[in-house]
Amino acid sequence: MDHSPHPTPTEITIVCAVITVSDTRTVETDRSGAKIQQLLQAAGHQIGAYLLVKDEPDQIQMQLDQLSRQPDLDVLIFNGGTGIAPRDTTYDAIAGCLEKTLPGFGELFRWLSYQEIGSRAIASRAIAGVFQQKLVFSVPGSTNAVTLAMTNLILPELTHLVSQLRQ
Q: ∠ CA(132), CA(40), CA(55), 5° rounding?
């Protein structure tokens, strides 16, 4: 069954930034950031930036602002810091900045997560929206969560959503 109500545009070049929010991960230990990059490249998209950022709201917002000013970037994908622990501040840092939100992203992500991990899915504060004409996603930092978000939600809609922003 075809779930796409609008025709998907022909291939367009999409350049993405991958930002891992963590107090402990390094480039060598960042399996989730690596997984996002691998999945994007396998789908024919480009990586324009890859960063590790401490779970500090001002640092997250600074990266959001700086990356959104780069004209070659289309999409910013944050991973990590979306739970409710005191150091989980990504949602709080990003949510207030978004000019438009895509509530369906978080809702569908939690629904899909529920099917995999049960009621623990309620603790996820995954979010997506638009900031400065950039598509922004924020997903949990576990490799399973990243894979779920990328394969079931982000990659299937990336071309369509970026095309909408370019109109």
A: 60
Q: Is this model's pTM higher than 0.85 or not? A: yes
Give 73-82 pLDDT, tens digit per residue: 999 999 999 9
Taking the C-alpha atoms of residue 58 and residue 64, their distance in angstroms, rounded to an integer, is 10
3-state secondary structure of 134: strand
Do 106 and 67 form a contact (C-beta atoms < 8 A)? no
For the chain, report the end-to-end CA distance as a whole number of angstroms.
28
Nearest to 116 by CA among 88, 138, 145: 145
82 Cβ neighbours under 8 A, 6+ residues apart: 88, 90, 91, 124, 125, 126, 127, 138, 139, 140, 141
